[in-house]
Amino acid sequence: MVPNEQGDGCFHCGLPLSNLGTCQGMIAGTRRMFCCSGCRAVCTTIHNAGLEGFYRQAHAISIPLAPPIPFSEEVALYDLDEVQKRFVDNLGPHREINLIVEGIHCPACVWLIEHALEPVPGVLAANVNLSGKRLRLRWDNTRLQLSQVMRRLSEIGYAALPFDPEVAEGQLRRQNRALLYRIAFAGFAAMNLMWTSIALYSGAAHSEFRELFYWVGFGLATPTLFYSGYPFFKGAWQGMRRFYPTMDLPIVIGASTTYAYSSYLTFLQIPGNGVYFDTVVNFLFVILVGRFLESASRRKAVASTQRVLDLQPRGATVLREGQEAIVSIDAIKTDELVLVRPGTLIPVDGMVVEGGSEVDESLLTGESRPVPKGVSDTVCAGSMNHSGALLIRVIGTLRNTALGRIIHLVEEAQSSKIPIQYFADRMVPWFVSVTLLLAAV
Fold it and tell me: What pLDDT score does 432 carry?
């Protein structure tokens, strides 16, 4: 629903007003009704920030507007450098981080988030990736804290947390499971429709059993079209609302037209013509398999980031005041001494100051043979110490290690687009439009 200036719904979210909890407020000199104080607060915040244009964009594409997200003071922990080490590449004055944002529905949400953050003092850049629901934020840490950005997002109805590959992989896993159910349903219908098709092609189309086979095909194709084909209908409708035809549109037109023609023949029992329910089901099944393979490849890409993260130990043995202490990897500082025993992973980048051993660096070089390491040699986080104990002086930790830079490159590649992708995105609407025009001609 959308804000309704003259209807009986809430001015912000459009939900029906009830006597319990209804409140009113002055917005731009006009008295407006809201379903709750939360919607009134969000609407007031948007207008005070000069972002009232969001309502015009939201109205144009008819989206559900988000209520305010309760802000937890626990996110202040993300202001600590020890915590930000896991997510921020450089702990200098100007920092950059990926935030995963819940509540993004459409381009209007992207517009609101970017325009709400740009005027905030200390925000250097805010770019939202709609497909990944990810916000790439650059800010001046001397003027602005990360928790303040999260609070600002919660005020306009969005919850944000630093991007975690493990969480992202879990979301993709749930999406793949739902897609697999649709594939299984379409596959079941396709296998059963194949029997009716074989019977019709073998001569049953000219017998007294023809109508029976037609109705069986109709009964199998109908739920398959609307259940298994729902993602295509949804994608096509969203594209048409934005006047941006996607590849889902020709799929929907082809499947719906074939289904409608076959249903027309079935209901009117017109002799001498064949139905194509099997074509509808098989078509959806094949396209869904392709979508599933594409989604599985995205999940593998995210999982690869998690596998690289798993190469870095969560803790290490540090020598402090002559005593060994096991501490979290977040608490290790540059120039401290770390003891790495045989058979364990090296937790940091550093220089060997005592001891000698052989180190497996295959994750960086691909070389399976261990490399001898002695005093003054450098070692990398994530590599395996084989034969002897090493005392290492820390050079880099977390995102500042060679392993951390690899993770950063992987995340950057996943969140960015190559030029050919931008070109393809611009060409898709023209390709779909020309294809449909040629088909109509």
Answer: 75
* Backbone φ, ψ for residue 6 (5° rounding): -125, -5
Mean pLDDT of all residues in 19-46: 68
pLDDT in tens, 382-406: 888 888 888 888 888 777 778 777 7
Greatest alpha-carbon span in the chain: 95
Q: 242-269: per-residue pLDDT in tens?
A: 666 767 888 888 899 999 998 888 888 7
pLDDT at 413 over 70: no
Question: Which residue in 302, 313, 325 sits closest to 349, CA to CA?
Answer: 313
